[in-house]
Amino acid sequence: MDTARVAILREALATTGWIEASRHFAASLRRSTRAPGGLLLVGTPDDEPWHLAAHLDDEARYAGIPQLSPTLVRWRPPPGSPQHLSIGLERIQAARRGETVFVVTADEAPPALLERVSDARRIGATVFALDRGDRELESLAHEALTVPQSGITTPAPVSFDLAQHLVSAAAGEIAGGGRGRRGMRDRLARLLDTISGPAR
Length: 200
Hints:
Elements: H1 3-14, H2 18-32, E1 39-42, H3 50-63, E2 71-73, H4 90-93, E3 100-104, H5 111-123, E4 126-131, H6 135-140, E5 143-146, H7 160-171, H8 184-196
Parallel strand pairs: 1-2, 1-3, 3-4, 4-5
């Protein structure tokens, strides 16, 4: 990844406030989960957040933050799925204090999910939401990051997919840096490679 492409992305995002917003959200996400396996990542029946789960898992390894590696919660795990892909909604019902339920959806959260999230919050779990302004979901969330829809005359500053990339990249950042840890420039470079392919 060349420096010029990273500079262009940083400059474009700097005017939107999304780098700061994603850093704040991601820092809160890191602090909310105390133990490995306690970050419960869930989407909707038709859109499970596989992509974000993979990126968070990568960042957890790169940054040495095991509690950042998510548990992907699925709506209907097929019989015979590997153990890490067979975790159903009952895991949210078993959430406890010190764990985090992270809901990622570009659509309205279905009532069955809202009910489980509400129960998890009452038990003491922390709730995060990355969504498009779902009022019911955001009313349950301790932290919410809203990705606006594009309008006819007002394009959204970032896509829902890019917002997930920004959150996962920021989640692996260590405040103040650290030896052997990748900085934001390297993370933006990897993000650009993911979105548009490596520079030639």
